[in-house]
Protein 1
Amino acid sequence: MTPAYPKLKPSHVSGVMKVQMSLFNQREDVKYYQVELFDLDFNSMPFSTTYRIMKVDYKERKDFEVYIRKSDLDNPLYLCTISKVVKPRSSSPLISSRICSKVMEETK
Amino acid sequence: MKYLAIPLIALASPALAGSVDIVGNVEAKCVIQTDKSGVYGNPTASTLSTSPSDGGVLPVVRFDVAIADYYTANITHPSSFSSSPALTDSVAWTGSTSVSKTSDAGMSGYDSAKVVYDNTTVFDLSVAGSTWFSTSSTATYAASKPFTGGTYTAVVQAECIAK
């Protein structure tokens, strides 16, 4: 997921900022990714986006926007995409991946 | 009329020799790929293990970072089954994560510099390139009871966190 440090831009809604993100799927075993926003202690934070869970085929790129309340931006936040893994038929460990960008006040 | 055509051809010719720019952009990014899916071996009735000596396969995750010093790799080995047959007793978990392959000699210090807390191992991705991490996981059923027959799944969480 890029960028590592997304730039905050004003949105069409007062008191809400937006960031433009891009996700490229390099995992052949994953087709769905979930978008999440966390504070620095990884507590969930409110946000809005078109699809919280989106389908991204292998080697496909998807651009998306995330809307964050201005009042939540006093401290840095982690904007993450989390892979949704499918339950396998054999006994095995699954690999769940999470990539997090840092949304920082300085980028306002 | 033919005199008018000469300057027109002269004007048009630079366009035929025009160049097309190819623009590239290298930006900080982290890509996680599954290099090898793991498998639990069942060396004894009460043990499930990814260790090759126990008949298992270690899961391997590859992290690619485009620019140095932008991310940490946080890898968490399992502490519970995400799906399993009904178990009546507790399961003891052990595990660890280490570097199995690197694309750059400068990454040789990753293993010695790693930080381990709880079930999570943190690597500072201070060199640009690819790093392969393998995670071992062992589940032992309480009091050496045999595991119930069925499929057992646990999750290794691989995270790439911007610094």
Protein 2
Amino acid sequence: MNIDYQQLEKVARNIRVDIVKETFHANSGHPGGSLSAADIMTVLYFHEMNVDPAEPKKYGRDKFVLSKGHASPVLYATLAHRGFFPTEELTGFRRFGSILQGHPDMKKVPGVEMSTGSLGQGFSASVGMAIANKLDKNPGRVYALLGDGELQEGIIWEAAMAAAHYKLDNLVAIVDWNGLQIDGKNEDVITVSPVDEKFKSFGFHVIHVDGHSMKEITEALAEARKQEGKPTMIVAKTLKGKGVSYMEGKAGWHGKAPNEEEAKQAVEELGGEW
Amino acid sequence: MSEKMATRQAYGEVLAELGEKNQNIVVLDADLSKSTMTAVFAGKYPERFFNMGISEQNLYGVAAGIAHSGKTVFASTFAMFAAGRAFEIIRNSIGYTKANVKICATHAGVTVGEDGGSHQSIEDLALMRTIPGMTVISPSDGMSAKLLIQQAAELDGPVYVRLGRAAVPGLYEADSDITIGKGNCVKDGSDYTVIATGIMVNEALIAAETLEKEGISLRVIDIHTIKPIDKDIIIKAAKETKGIVTAEEHSVFGGLGSAVAEVVVQSAPTKIAFVGLQDTFGESGKPAELLAKYGLTASDIIAAVKSL
């Protein structure tokens, strides 16, 4: 299959521009971990997943769960660009009366499969969705995006055990491995590595990728499809704040919005229009 | 009256019946299926039973995911680990998303007995009652447990059902009028009212019989649905009798007593006495010993009536 990586890069840039704008307009939200996940989200929604924005609850669709729910800006921008709702909605992010809550709410936003935000729970729900699809012989696959800091939650490992036990080869988890959490580096807060060996020993097929390489992400997702009897964990090495020079690699941009000057600079760096 | 039976036993039997009629029902447990009685369903429909092992947080997270895939999910463990340990998962993944999950929690209250205070859930009604949209049910006998669980299966949304370990006397028949959200006046009376739930309904009936001999007429109401609570039956009792005693195998903070008081103070102020655990944990012992020590018997209800 010929994949237009340039087109995917273009979509990811547009998503990044909207992440900056969303958090600027809201004057709150989580830009760092949204920017780090933009390429992964682009490949999922514009290449990998079988979804239909005209019929968000279509039987047999693939499902995505943003377990790191605070990265809602990237999910909202991706869904909007994919056509689930108008991009104009994005300026309402985190505002009173908007469908775009601080953390994703499945009851309000078309295309959001699970309300998340309390870390670890999205992954657990995605295991439930994969079990249900197996039970129904529903061909839909389930994708969950996890934060690296989120792996510190106990429920992650409970869910991982269940995913392997029930041989959920229709489940793909991706960890957005940017190495940073609110209080600093994962390794300084509480060590989560080695993630690959942990998930391997829990019974997952583990793949390493550069989380900003469209090609590597695409190929890893294709490899996951070939697994039989095992869930897949894609460990995606990413850069927090990717694409915005002053945010890159800075834990301080985990949950802080850019001011107008900063936002304008970010949009310019990303090649977008203010 | 139907035979003596634990409400968890009734749950196991009715769940297996429901599973036969409704192919959409999926059952989850956390390594306690022989105690919660979901093992009956598991034996008949193993393909629709999933054991999550000793991981109650994941039990309810997975339950939400399966429910949002179009299933009616029954997910069971002990009340302590459901309402207690998994509270925030139930709150966010099930309550906040209105997931169609029936949290049938067994071994509630001090009648767990020998396991001791660490396993005696006396806060679950309070915890579950605070979750917006959560229906909270606390049956008083096996038959009403069956009827209420059948109705819960038909409701679209989260339901918490509190079930007990020990066998309790039967109060209802198969054709009794039991409806979620409606209290049952199990004995009419004109002087005072006891509003009870769970095993305390039977104690209230014993108290009424004793007080009758002393010329005191006691009305006994079984509130098997803690939320939404039957305001009408409570207001009527508050207006028609001289005072109310609430009785529950639960802390006096936040459970039935608080729910009744909330209705009474807003609509028909009257004096209320609260029978329940008075800011204390339980301990190991036989159920009867614990009920006596913690003030959960007919004679405690009688004393409370006389205190009004």
Protein 3
Amino acid sequence: MEDNKPQLVKVTVDGIEVEVEPGTTILQAARKIGPEVAPPAMCYYQPLKGSGGKCRACLVKVAAGSAKDPRPMPKLVASCITPVQDGMVVENTTSPQVLEARKGVVEFLLINHPLDCPVCDQAGECDLQNFAFEHGAAKTRYEEERRTFDKHDLGPYIQLHMTRCILCYRCVFTADQITNKRVHGVMNRGDHAEISTYIEKAIDNDFSGNVIDVCPVGALTDKTYRFKNRVWFSRPVDAHRDCPTCSGKVTLWYRGEEVIRVTARKNEWNEVNEFICNTCRFETKKTSDWVIEGPTKIARSSVITANKYRADTIKPDFVSRLAAANYKPIDDTRDTSQLSIQQLPPERFASSN
Amino acid sequence: MGKKILLEHIDVPGIDTYDVYRKQGGYTAVEKALKTMTPDSVVEEVKKAGVRGRGGAGFPMGMKWSFLAKPEGVPRYLVCNADESEPGTFKDHYLMKHIPHLLIEGMIVSSFALGANKSFIYVRGELMYVIRILEKAIAEAKAAGFLGKNIMGSGYDLELVVQPGGGAYICGEETALLESLEGKRGNPRNKPPFPAVKGLYQSPTVVNNVESISTTPWIINNGGDAYAAIGIGRSTGTKLISASGHINKPGVYEIELGVSVEDFIYADEWCGGIRPGHKLKAVVAGGSSVPILPANLILNLANGDKRLMSYESLSDGGFATGTMLGSGGFIVMDETACVVRNTWNFSRFYHHESCGQCSPCREGTGWMEKVLHRIEHGHGSLHDIDLLVDVAKKIEGNTICPLGDAAAWPVGSAIRHFRDEFEWHINHPVEATQPGAVYRGEMALV
């Protein structure tokens, strides 16, 4: 089988060898090996052409450039945009220099981040949370005031929290590549740069909601879902519908009996498989509108979802049983019935195992 | 007197007009190149001359030209980087203002060598009057038949466009410049691909500094070997140095590379010494982004030899005891200059000019500026010094473009060589924040 694909190049990442097609980036080669050696990516987003290179989270050390020229590269390189060479030796987690640089990147990303995770809708599925949890220091050395921005209203669907933004440019690429007209972009320069529309405009486009899915942090969130729930209280379910504008393949997020949010389906790298339209995302929130396929398999790791949403190994009712077993009444007068996760009736799952 | 190549006719009255420039031997290089030489032989002469990029990086210009990809049916571009914004550097401004035709002649010869039919001069937006001077000079050159279609019957066409920038320092970085020239936000691009393969409008592009391009007429007229004979070692030719600071005669000087730093500062021909009654404390040798050096290290190498004005000698000893020639912005400070304040000022500049694209530079430059501001204003603590070193180290080398390095080097070097002064600022906040207060502790003044 190797004979008809003679073009494959060999790359070694953290001592593990992998064969990939020429032109593949180091990051993709490492992802092919597995999540243990894949560098984190805050700005790179595979479905978006031109993304990457900005956050510097994926910096790796190239200990040998190629078999022909085994000299190491002088600087750390951004693995998401650097193509592999045959015989390249890459050090990711095995290089103290890389880990040190990554620690620096986390610190830089966090110095002006508000750290308002307790009230942020993204908490629990936030790339920055995962990244900081894995590579960051527990304490900050930043004593200055964090930067703030004037508020901008982006219309009825999308909520912008500019203070949380890490300027990954993903939403800009999304608007460029899947919508016909981009009305938002990055304004200003340096640490005053901000995502904004020029002179207070609403983002009005059938696919604008996808900027919420691509945002790695809670800078762009769903207004129809705002402050309604914490991610870990809801249960993701794959569903589809016959949509005239998009593929209609989505993930529904249930809390109790209610669909509280609709998102596109994401792969194990937290990247959207197929972008969905605003009608599916914001306006179709009844179970009767959808054909349920089954519980979503969440393969990616996350600070809060880790070991919790393994739908392939864990039965759907596991979480609710777990919650019931560990349930301790809170000493207040809140209505706690909403906090426990109710099991969905089995007929909801078209292909439930 | 040192050899003058670029500023040979600077004192001739009316040199900014075509007639006077032509009388002084102007445009003979265009005639020679277009009539008697092939593009490849022009590239060969420039390669022989060994002229190194004058914009700061010092990359051999001939080599850069030979890297230019030449696919069929795709236009090639030459872009002149006249977005000179480095604090302390003002040589290109001077050159364009006084001898605009030299740059235009250089652009014609260089474009011919690279096979570019449309070339751009990207001038920083603040220099609107220089843009008008250049446009007038281009019109004159066009009227004289040195620009336009079929130049001097050679069949070679060239159109020269002057493009004002928006005044951003980052647009002096070559890929940000190309983005800006394309009408986009001036963000540096990820490399590879390099501009020599995919540059302006995704076509192969060479970006050269004003001074580099201005050397080509002389090289064509006199030969690459003659140029290589000037200078020292791999630092060939002459270099414009923008001298500023506490010296008797600030200004733009053309020096033969290899002049000793001591001569440059103290000889009457150039800076004319430190202002009366004061002593040399420190020098920033190549524009604000290169490491600052104290008096003893700028005059002498670590081994005691004299330091020379050349690419190699100035960077001798790495960053521990050396610096860089950079773009030739020679900032001299006497003992009344406060290094902490100066470092803060540089940091403020880089904080303001960071494009905000990649996180270490965007966040780190602001952080360093704030910490330095704190130290300068008497609110610092001793661990802030180590914090600055650490932040600078985490920016350096981890960014998309060299602006991150440029922001980190001045801070790192100032602390490396003037740590006492930082400590004094922190330990004596009341004295240090008095107007005009400067550290007068032990240090080598010359």
Protein 4
Amino acid sequence: MHLAWIDWLVMLVYFAFVLGIGFALKRYIRSSNDFFLAGRSIPAWVCGLAFISANVGAQEVLGMGASGAKYGIVMSHFYWIGAIPAMLFVGYFMMPFYYGSKARSVPEYLRMRYDEKTRAVNAFSFAIMTVFSSGISLYAMALLIQTLGLLDGLLPGAWVFHFSIFLSAAIVLGYIFLGGLSSAIYNEVLQFFLIVAGFLPLVWIGLRNVGGWAGIQHRLPATMTHSWLGMEHASTNSLGVGIIGLVMGLGFVLSFGYWCTDFLVIQRAMAADSQDSARLVPVIAAIPKMFFPFVVILPGLIAVCVTSHTLGPTAVSVPSGIVAGVSAASAHRIAADPQVKESHPHGIIPQKADPITGMPIVDSTGAPVYNYDLATPLLLLHFFPAGMLGLGITALLASFMSGMAGNVTAFNTVWTYDIYQSYIRKNANDSHYLWMGRAATVGGILLSIGAAYAVTSFNNIYDALQLVFSLVNAPLFATFLLGMFWKRTTGHAAFAGLLSGSTAALLHHGLTIPQGALPGLHGGWIAILHIYPSEMAQNFWTAIVSFTVNMAVTTVVSLLTKPRPEDELIGLVYSLTPRRIDSHLPWYRRPIWIASGVAGMAVVLNFLFR
Amino acid sequence: MGLDVRLPLGLLFLAIGTLLAFYGFSTMGSDLYAKSMGVNLNLIWGSIMMILGLLAAWVGRKRRLS
């Protein structure tokens, strides 16, 4: 597929701005505080948009489009149940401790509240996770560029994947190296608006084509156009998840574990210019987040409803090399997925082709296997003329870069403050740590490139991240919840709880398996004690088990160990910290009013799509 | 921070919007738009981005000067 000159020009203009911001902000970076925390000087709304943009990585735009095409609007649970409540909670209840304690990172808060070893566990696991996530972003972007054949004719086929990885890594490196967190945040605001500007007209023209929401409802099975239909039991909805797994696993453990403890997003709120602003950041971010299903999931539903087949599988160049392993793995998984009904239309979603023979891949019953990951990109190619196509592809690239940059800025901070300054070189001057921050940015990017090449066995990126989150993040929330709201919790208890929570997650994963999967990466590698109806159900229950074990172990060990004196915990624990008075703020700037409005709107959205 | 983010944001939208609008203007009536169901998306969306960009850049610049 060849792009017109106008498409390239739009992309070039964007890249020029991205790097231009890095150069423009370089002169403001004088201390490590400027580099890692943006000098704590950014207004709430800017941090709020960066908060949401850093979270919108490859897994969201492509993964949600893919899942929308496969499962339907039911994926909105990842927003209205799986994000909004947690975002309101972290803003209203937890930000005062993160911001007010003057901790420079989430692991540093853990050291202040608990002890060194708890911080170390969090810092190391987080650093590894950010590199992994950033590698996935890179990998997905390069794979997409290769699959769509964007660089065909400009570069030899074998170079495209490698060139895409190194060029995108170099751009992200450039703007973070120069301007640190401020540059990442400013770029995330641009990326947020670009994603909206690229996808909004796509949804508009797509809906016009399929006859609006009514047209989609007419063509697709009812479980795909309702969020709550059949949710009471795993066997009656397309996700294969029951209501307890959904609400407790996704809505509580996984979602709160991510939004309330992940330094990637918290770092954006910590960069706010005051504590009042910091509390508002996640709450403001929840407003666009609530409407994101219409920008990222809806294209998937439109893609399966579009009837003309102008872009069949032949229009997409056959992926080669690294794609081979992925195709085979995912062919097995989609074929094994009993939830995907044969009856649902596939629109412009191409069948998977064998990368070697070029023949369509079929499952064990002879039914074709579809490549859902291409839903959103193919919809762009289907509806956008030259010009707009450049904008659409720029929006896709922006989403990859914002996700990657979010991980890299979180990595360089945790590495420098929580690992390097704590365990390697304690008393250097500030300019040395600023230098180390820049060096860590280079190191983080190199590790991401390594991770990108290592990630070849997962196809559905979103599932892969969910698995990582459920192993690392699920026990975390119990540690923060007890730490912030129960003054008796001790450091030894937190440490023991975290380790046993993660061990429990690992054991649960090893002892259970989703229906139809083979033992190994998807579970059941110790023994098979239980079979879940879907991989998602298994992920949600892994999280629930891990959270419960951590909660129990931390509580018991806390009662057996000596608590810290109360005066050391002021500002770190809810009951020992004076309540924040916000009566000086006008009502529309008070978190409680905005949060109530957002919560009410989320209820309305759930009701409308029930 | 000395730079108001609305300034680069506005300029980016202004630049991309102008490019798209001009391209849309010069390709008016072309069968390029058969894909987008006869709608000249470049001209329409480009103009909208241009106007929004101008607004954002203007506000960003005003704030910076004050």
